[in-house]
Amino acid sequence: MSISSKADPDLAALQDDIAALKRDVSNLLEHLKIGATNSAQSAAGRLDDSAQRIYRNVAAEGDRAAKAIGRHVEEQPLVALLIALGIGYVGGRLLSR
Prior knowledge:
The protein is mainly α and 97 residues long. Helix content is 95%, strand content 0%. The mean pLDDT is 88.
């Protein structure tokens, strides 16, 4: 038996193995791509939920602060007026420079 006739089946088996390896790598990459896409979508959903929760918390805190300031102004209007005048004066002096 010659060397070339013996190498042909080995070469064919090697080519089949390489083709199978290419298919496996392609399937693996596709699987990784799908997993990464699902993970990214899940993370985006969690971030969106977190952002909405933070917005609601900040809005509620702002409302509470505005009500507290409103009560303070109603209870002590003269003090509130003097504070506003002082802030206005200092702000005007800083901006005139």
